[in-house]
Each structure stands twice: as structure tokens, then as C-alpha cells.
Amino acid sequence: MAERTKYILDEADMPARWYNVIPDLPEPPPPPLHPGTREPIGPDDLAPLFPQALIAQEVTTERYVDIPEEVQDVYRLWRPSPLFRARRLEKALGTPARIYYKYEGVSPVGSHKPNTAVPQAFYNAAEGVARLTTETGAGQWGSALAFACATFGLECEVWQVRASYDQKPYRKLMMETFGATVHPSPSELTASGRAILAADPGSTGSLGIAISEAVEQAAQAENTRYALGSVLNHVLLHQTIIGEEALKQFELAGDTPDVLVGCTGGGSNFGGLAFPFLREKLAGRMDPVIRALEPAACPTLTRGKYAYDFGDTAGLTPLLKMHTLGHDFIPDPIHAGGLRYHGMSPLISHIYELGLIEALAIGQEDCFAAGVKFARTEGIIPAPEPTHALAACIQEALRCKETGEEKVILTALCGHAHLDLPAYGAYLAGDISDHALPDEVLAKSLAGLP
Amino acid sequence: MAERTKYILDEADMPARWYNVIPDLPEPPPPPLHPGTREPIGPDDLAPLFPQALIAQEVTTERYVDIPEEVQDVYRLWRPSPLFRARRLEKALGTPARIYYKYEGVSPVGSHKPNTAVPQAFYNAAEGVARLTTETGAGQWGSALAFACATFGLECEVWQVRASYDQKPYRKLMMETFGATVHPSPSELTASGRAILAADPGSTGSLGIAISEAVEQAAQAENTRYALGSVLNHVLLHQTIIGEEALKQFELAGDTPDVLVGCTGGGSNFGGLAFPFLREKLAGRMDPVIRALEPAACPTLTRGKYAYDFGDTAGLTPLLKMHTLGHDFIPDPIHAGGLRYHGMSPLISHIYELGLIEALAIGQEDCFAAGVKFARTEGIIPAPEPTHALAACIQEALRCKETGEEKVILTALCGHAHLDLPAYGAYLAGDISDHALPDEVLAKSLAGLP
Questions:
Q1: Same domain, yes or no, for B138 and B287?
Q2: Do A91 and A119 share a structural domain?
Q3: Taking burial as the number of CB atoms within 10 A of a residue's CB, which of A25, A34, A396, B128 is the most buried?
Q4: d(CA A443, CA A371)
């Protein structure tokens, strides 16, 4: 028998609980504030947007939350997801390091997003909601919610950033195949959208604007709620099934990670893999370095300010204490659309402030070089977002080659690039640059923050 | 514990041999003929195109062929592939039938094609070949060979039908990401291509023309061989790992198929799943109905002639005894590009003539309706090709609903539609018709055959 390529859990061994990291932290994260009163918000403030079950999960102090059987049933369409040992990449690099990747591209839409879309659709359906609204950029989150809504018989209405709506029709077609309605944002359908279009009829939109439109619609329309694909506590909670599975798979492998790397946009992919390992670290059962990777074009953790800011452009959301570049910051149009968010999960931000994780920003050229190397050795063409983590992983493996260290590296491969292939085309044609954020642009954007 | 959604084999249980159905048939298939002498061709006739190992596999009478360890090592990047029980589809249909699907979309390129691309690249590399040429239509086969060549350090040169090259840039980008060179066909690079362009400078190409270009290049260029993605015995041999795995998975499920449905273009997906079950049927160990599904636009088995014909347009290949619509037949541009081949695997054709399998042609509207229903229940958006089998599967399940029969249906889900989403867009917009082949067009095309 050859050495193993992948570690697969049986369906019966799929974790039946999500993990909430908050009770294990030395102190709790600062609460969201009402923008008018600047007092901590309560459940009633969130009720127009979210069902009670999700509001309860947002603020729970329980360490574990049971995964409903109906959600597990849908998860089993692709979960448990595989943990791979990247033997062919290791060989190509000539490194003594052992590289593992947890692959979420096996989901119906090709990323980790359905891990939270499915429970969000389930809890809304269970409370009688008929329709969900959301925003999406490149479309990973929108297609995940479209799939989840199809599964539980909900209508799904998506505002997609117009630049992506026009340039990336495949994601829109995926959402429509799952039965969703997709609008380009800004749209004439909401006051937020109309205000933007009045000021700039040719606006190509932004994630912050699309959030404003979806939130506004959910707050006003009957029997309609809003769903967010990252940033919030309950979203990260749902994603912890990734890390819980990975822990079991490392047991099968008889190995323990020394370094864990994941990319961060809103933080849900990173948190999903990292939090269960952070629990083990805090309990003294292992001691991995945990490292967040972000694009140099949108360096929230490494160069943003830790301050209260809005989650959207129009200022309709509560104020969140997070690392932010300013809620009207619009990053360069890098291909890693999922990492182009001005803020960061408040929970990840808090954990970063506590010194429990590291962060590093990286340019686009190294990312795509890593993506191509990975594709040609491991066969999977990684989405632009996780190439940030892969580039860091390869750097670490090459350091090991110099030092001779047999480090164990774990990376979150949160999706494939089937619908992002033009990004690889641009890289192969030499049309990718690093897009590092200029100091003066950053300073100007941060100046507006408290 | 809930009922199982999928049956996963451990890597250690991956079959280590391919199955050759020929020795188990009541009579062997008619041999390929040299177009000049009309005598059976020998190994020397194939040597300019294929390595010795593959020529030996093309004519072997051994029942089993060992899978080289190097090939198994690459297979393990995605194999064993899952066998799913389509419980959510069953529930939506309200059928007492039990529906299973063997899913090949988990491969790096999203289809079953790498099952043969990998061994083809391996045997060529082992015999010192430096470069492979091939043709591709929509691009599934070209991207599989590009991936396989990257794995074994071979150059890969692909002639892609110009209509697809222009309309479906994502597949070309995938091939290029794996390191392949892609030419639109017809091209100025070959005599075959130049002849077509001289007659019709605006030619958008065909699979037959692209085969001519790739074969011509392989026969002339140094240290270069040709690779074919379907039709031939060795290709179907490699694909039998699908059926061998499925047999083991049915043992895990404690079930036995009554009906097996698969789509047929060149025949490799269908043969790959069906042949191991046909062995069991011939040995009296089970008795499934085995049914091939083809598009009404290209009804090779159901309306073609069983005759000796060329595999390509220019007449560069040996003559193959097969069900054919004529080697210059150009089917309507249906979205199931993989089913638009004028001929059929000689082995499948022979088995059909022996009465061991059934065949049925189906229109495009039923196919896409089945694809959408499947996506919204099972989460996977099926490639246009396997929607033919899914439509038949759903018909069978609905018959069971009427009769109350608890039939067990197995279908080959050979790939996903991530790079075919515009086809779903056309269906949702009402722009899909059945494309049944008119009698007079068929009669004219068949008139040229012996």
C-alpha cells in the first residue's frame, strides 16, 4: 500500500456540533453598537434582519451548538470534505515539510460558503420566512445561498456588484440554475441603489453598496430576511465544521500541524479552519502558529485600524469593532473578489488583538505563481482567494528546505477556480500586478474613522 | 445514524486492475481495417500514433490489465470517486425507486476523462515520448490531457474546434493553466487544416477536422504521439475503473442495480461504468438492463448504420466497424459537445449488435429539465452530456411511481457543468429545442457509407 494521498471521514464521523470559540477566549470581543445611541445592540435590533435562532447563535456563550439533523442531511451531499497530503507539491518543491490541505471545493458551488448558507436557509425556513436577500461580489456567496434556498424551498434574491454581474456571467447563471433572482447593484429597486445611481449613473457598484441594497430590502419586504456570508459570529460558528473535521483527519494521519495558514476576506474560511485548532492551542494540546493571509490590495488586519465602523457603505448596519480600511474604501479590482472587503470579522479582529494569531499581506503575482504550481502538481486549480494561503505555504515549505525542518503545514483550500479562469488567463498573459495599497490612499481612507 | 447519502471506498480499496470485456463476449468485435488494403491493421500501422503499451492494450485478450503504481498515484488525487444515493431527488419525485449515481465530476477537470488521460500520458512518457497532440471539442478531453501531461512532464498540444475555442474560453484557459498549447482548428499549422481553410476561410471546424490535424501532426513531428479521448478499446479499458469501483460500492450499499443508464458520445463514459456490470450479467451474478442514451441530434446507435467508416473527416484513421452517421456528418450545435461524434466505439457498437445493451435517443428539452431538477435537489449541476442519462433515469423512476416497483437505478454522472453554464442560461431563457435529426438529412449522410 502506497502512502496516503487523502484522509476521508465516514459520514457517520461527521461532526454533529459547531464550535463557538468565544467562551475559550481570555476576554470576550467588544459588542456591536447601535449607530444612533452607541449602546450595545440587543436581539430586537437584529430581528428585522435575522431569524431568532441565528440571533441567539450570534450572542451565545455556549461552547458547542448542535447541528440540526436537516442541516446534516444537506451537508452529507459533500461533507465530510477531504484532507489531502500534498505529496506531489512537496516533491516538486523538494521540501522536507509535510503539507496538508483541507479542500472545500467539493461543495455544490465549489467553496466553503454552503457550510453557512445551508443552516441560514434552514433556520429561516423553520421560522416561516419565505424569502432571503443577500449581496454577492464575484458570486461564491450568492450561489451558495441560491443552492441552500433551493434545498429548503425559499425564494432567493441576490444583489450582485454590477462589475461582476457584467464580467462574470457564469456565476449569475449558476445562481439562476438554482432558482435565484439576481439583480445588478446598484439597482433602481432600493433607495440605497437609486441614491448611488442618481449621483453616478454609471456606477459599477461595490460590496458595501450591494449589502445596503439587500439589507434595505429585507427590512422592508414582507416575510423576508437577510443573509450574510461572512464577518458575523454565527457565520464563523457554522464554518467551524471545517476545522473539527480536520482535527479528526489529523488523528487519522497521526500528525499535528506546526503552522496553519488561511486567507482572510471577511474571515469565515480562516476562522472555520482555525478556531478548533485555536481551542486545542489554548488548551495546551498542540501549539500551531496560526497565520492569516490577506491581499496587499486590501490589507485589513496588517494595515487597517481597529475601530468601530459600519459593515456597509450606506451605514445601515450596526457599528462593528473590527480592523477596517474605512467603510467607503474601495480596493483595487483584484481577481480575489472574496478578499475585497473593507472590514474584518470582529471575532478575528479581537483574536488578532489578543496576539493569538499572526497576519501577513501578500501581492497578487506570488499568489498566482503559487496557484499555477499547485494546479500542475496537485491537479486542483485553486480559486484566487486561497492562492494567498498557498503562496505562504510554499514560502514556509521552501524555508524548511533551507533549514531542513520537517514542519507540518496545514492550509485552507477553500475553493476551486472553475469560474475564475479568466484570472489565470490574465496571469499567464502577464497582466497581473501586486496592487499594493499606496500609503497616501490608505491614510486618506483611515482619516474618516473614529 | 441517518441513512447514507454516499458510499466512499478507501484508497486502499481502489481497484488495481482495469477490466477488458472482450474475452467475456460470445464473439470478438470485428478488427479495424487499413483503408488502402482493407486488411486488418497490425501494431506497426499504429506505431506512428501510439506507444507500444497502448497498442498492446488495444488488442489484448487478457481479461484484466494491472494499473501501474504511478497511474494509481495520480488517480488517488480524486479516486475512488463517490457513489451517491439520490435520496433528495427520489423524495422530490415521490418514487419508490432507489436512484444511485456514480459521480466523476470530482476529478481535477470535472469529468471522467482523466481516467484515461493519465495512463495515456504515463505510457507515452515511459517510452520517451516528449509531446502529445490531441483534438478537443468543448474541451473536457483537452483539459484532461493537459492535466495528465503536466503530471508526467510532457508537452501537450491541443487542436480545439474553432467554434468552441471562440465561444467557450474558460476551457482553453484551463488547458493553458495546466501548461498546454491550444490552437483553434482548422489551423494553418497542418495540411488538413490548410485544405479546409482554402475551401472555407471562415470554417468554424468540427471534431473530425480537429482529429485530422492532431493525427497529422503526431505522425510527422519528432518524438510526438497522438492521444484519443474515447472510441478505442484501450480508452474504454481505462474507464472501467468507474464500474469496478461502483460494484464494490454497491456491495457496501447491500443493493443491486436493475437498470443502468449512461450517455454515449464516443462511448467511454458508458462503457467505463457498464462493462464491469456486463461481466456480472454475462456470468449470471446479476441481471441489470443496460441502456445507452444519446442525443436525438446525433443518434448514432439508434439511427446510424453499422458499417466500416473513418474516425475523422480527412480519412487519416483506420476504418472502424461502428454505428456511424457518416464521417462527414456534422450534428446540430447542441450544448452536449461530448455527444456530437459521428461514430461510436466499435466495442459498444458490437455489444449493441449482440443485443446485450439497449439504446434510446432523447431530445434536449427533457435533458435540461432533468438537469435543473437534479441541481435543485442534489446540488450538483450536471454537465449537458449526463443530463441525457438523468432524464432517462427520472423517466424510469416516474414509471416506478406508477407501478409501485422498487427498482434500483444506477446512472453515470460523468461530470459537472461549471464550464457549461451558458447552456443552462439558454435553457432557462427558453432557447433550447430538441434538435431531432430530420430523416432527409440522415438519409443523405448515410448514403455515402458502404
A1: no
A2: no
A3: A396
A4: 32
Whether the CB-CB separation of A141 and A118 falls below 8 Å is answered with no
State the pLDDT at residue B338: 86
| Domain range for A132 | 114-228
- Name every chain A residue with its beta carbon within 8 A of the beta carbon of B419: 170, 418
Chain A interface, mutation test: which of B380, B421, B427, most A Cβ atoms within 10 Å? B421
Domain end (from A190, A210, A228): A228
Question: Residues A171-209: pLDDT tens digits?
Answer: 999 999 999 999 999 999 999 999 999 999 999 888 889
Beta bridge partners of A262: A292
Burial class (CB in 10 A: 0-12, 13-18, 19+), B218: buried
End-to-end CA distance of chain B, in Å? Answer: 61
Query: What residue of A is the nearest CA neighbor of B425?
Result: A173
Domain limit, last residue, from B228, B257, B274 = B228
Interface mutation target, options B89, B418, B431, chain A, most CBs of A under 10 Å: B418
Which of B173, B176, B428 is facing A177, going by the closest CB pair? B428
Same structural domain, B155 and B292: no
CA–CA distance, B44 with A264 (Å, rounded to integer) = 58
Asked if B280 and B312 sit in the same domain, the reply is yes
Shortest distance, CA A17 to any CA of chain B (angstroms): 15
Q: Are B165 and B252 members of one domain?
A: no
Convert the pLDDT of each residue in B202-236 to its tens digit.
Answer: 998 888 899 999 999 999 999 999 999 999 999 99
What whole-number distance in Å separates Cα of residue B382 and Cα of residue A406? 42
pTM of the model: 0.96
A434 and A292 share a domain? Answer: yes
Place of cell 481502489: B14
pLDDT at B1: 47
Say yes or no for a CB contact (<8 Å) between B375 and A425: no
User: In this structure, are B194 and B240 located in the same domain?
Assistant: no
Which helix (H) or strand (E) element contains residue B85? strand B83-85
Do B240 and B360 belong to one domain? yes
Instruction: Give the residue ranges of chain B where pLDDT is below 70.
Output: 1-2
Mapping DSSP onto H, E and C, the string for chain A reads CCCCCEECCCHHHCCCEEECCHHHCCCCCCCCECCCCCCECCHHHHCCCCCHHHHHHHHCCCCEEECCHHHHHHHCCCCCCCEEECHHHHHHHCCCCEEEEEECCCCCCCECCHHHHHHHHHHHHHCCCCEEEEEECCCHHHHHHHHHHHHHCCEEEEEEEHHHHHHCHHHHHHHHHCCCEEEEECCCCCHHHHHHHHHCCCCCCCHHHHHHHHHHHHHHCCCEEECCCCCCHHHHHHHCHHHHHHHHHHHHHCCCCCEEEEECCCCHHHHHHHHHHHHHHHCCCCCCEEEEEEECCCCHHHHCEEEEEECCCCCCCCEEEEEECCCCCCCCCCCCHHHCCCCCCHHHHHHHHCCCCEEEEECHHHHHHHHHHHHHHHCCCECHHHHHHHHHHHHHHHHHHHHCCCCEEEEEECEECHHHHHHHHHHHCCCCCCCCCCHHHHHHHHCCCC
Output the pLDDT for position B144: 98
Encode pLDDT of A114-170 as tens digits: 999 999 999 999 999 999 999 998 899 999 999 999 999 999 999 999 988 988 889
pLDDT at residue A2, as a whole number? 65
CATH number at residue A331: 3.40.50.1100
Whether B32 is in a domain gets the answer no
Q: What is the mean pLDDT of residues A350-374?
A: 97
User: Structurally, how many domains does chain A consist of?
Assistant: 2
